[in-house]
Amino acid sequence: MTTVALKDVTKVFQDGTIAVDTINLDVNDGEFMVLLGPSGCGKSTVLRMVAGLEDPTSGAVMLGGEVANDLPPRDRKIAMVFQDFALYPHMTVGDNIGFPLRLSGVEPGPRGERIQDVAGALGIGDVLARKPSQLSGGQRQRVAMGRAIVRRPGLFLMDEPLSNLDSGLRAELRAEISGLTRELGVTTIYVTHDQAEALTMADRVAIMRKGVLQDVGTPTQVYGRPATLYVAAFLGSPRMNLLEASVYVHLDRYVALNLGEQALYLPWDDIRSRAVAHYHGERIVVGMRAEALTPVAPDTPGDVLHGRIRYLEHHGHESLAFLDIGATAIVVDEMGTPVERAAPGQRSLRRFGQVMQRLTGRAGES
Ligand code: ATP
After folding, report:
1. Does 299 sit in the ligand 1 pocket, CB within 6 Å?
2. Which residue minimizes the CA distance to atom 22 of ligand 1?
3. Fewer CB within 10 Å: C terminus or N terminus of the chain?
4. CA of 40 to the centre of ligand 1 (A)
5. Ligand 1 touching residue 193 (CB < 6 A)
6. Is the CB of 136 inside a 6 Å radius of any atom of ligand 1?
7. CATH number of 4-234: 1.10.3210.10, 2.40.37.10, 3.10.20.30, 3.40.50.300?
8. Is 60 exceeded by the pLDDT of residue 221?
9. Is pLDDT above 60 for 321?
């Protein structure tokens, strides 16, 4: 059973860089946890502290409920996979996979069987006699995975393992990796800056920014109920619309969100009214995802935004309309709407859908 817990973990490098700032995070047994954030936010440093390759400046790294700060890396029952694969070029695929077993003194017979099992599971059973240079990028990554799982680790640590591969292969391998780790029931911490990878693979996602943990939750939670404005803007493509508004409650009748040149009127019994009513008289930020906005007729009353389309972007399965609504530009998912109706320059109206409107904080917060 491998759980990981970070308790107030901070890492300050010798030059004064605060790479990780007072992080608290629990990873459950068998869970697939993804650390997500932009380059330099401290993801790899967290991973390296869990692996024992870096010492925390303060705080505790706990493995299986025990403080592991002083436990050498080799005693942590951890396997790591990096983006550069780091295979031994002079060894065959079979020997690469079997290398950790050889190091720990496993006899050739059982070693060979275990290599066959692992290679079979990864679909590389027919290339065991080749050298790494004779493999494709995807096959090399599978060998690196094979070498990591061959000793049945209690914990997998993966640092951007797919970032050197082309996008088709990445999509294929991310399904394979998450399938395999779940099959094996191995606790996994996976580092990436790719949100598609994070949202598709994770049981839970931990989002970092400048060494600070911003949000932790299932992909649905962090996407639908982001804890901070940063997470709201960071997750999702196109970016979530974030509009500043003043809140005015007209008791028992409606809530007005004043956006400057126009206002939105939410019926009193609307769930969104209750979510914002206690901000009466304050300025807040309203988050709206493109897919939560739908076109309506120009004279529709109530929670309607009026905008002028600046341009359209067609993506095959969907089209995006970029609108000016007064001073603010806004993006609207045009799925299902005849494109002719939304030609550039035309005045257009969009209604807030029911899917996702949420106040993510006060104006100016991040
Ligand atoms: P990337 O996705 O680019 O790998 P990351 O989120 O994994 O980024 P880290 O590699 O953990 O980020 O780095 C976090 C911060 O710590 C960065 O500002 C980095 O420059 C700094 N850093 C990392 N290693 C050291 C070191 N040995 N000495 C000083 N600063 C370091």
Report:
1. no
2. 19
3. N
4. 5
5. yes
6. no
7. 3.40.50.300
8. yes
9. yes
CA 37 / ligand 1 centre spacing (Å): 12
| Contact partners, residue 342, CB within 8 Å, separation at least 6 | 295, 309, 312, 319, 321, 334, 348
Surface-to-core class of residue 119, CB atoms within 10 Å of its CB (0-12 exposed, 13-18 middle, 19+ buried): buried
Is the pLDDT reported for residue 337 higher than 60?
no
Domain ranges of the chain: 4-234, 241-362
- Model confidence at 361: pLDDT above 50: no
Reported ipTM: the value is: 0.95
The predicted pLDDT at position 334 comes to 63
Residue-wise pLDDT for 275-309, tens only, equals 888 888 888 888 888 887 777 777 777 778 888 88
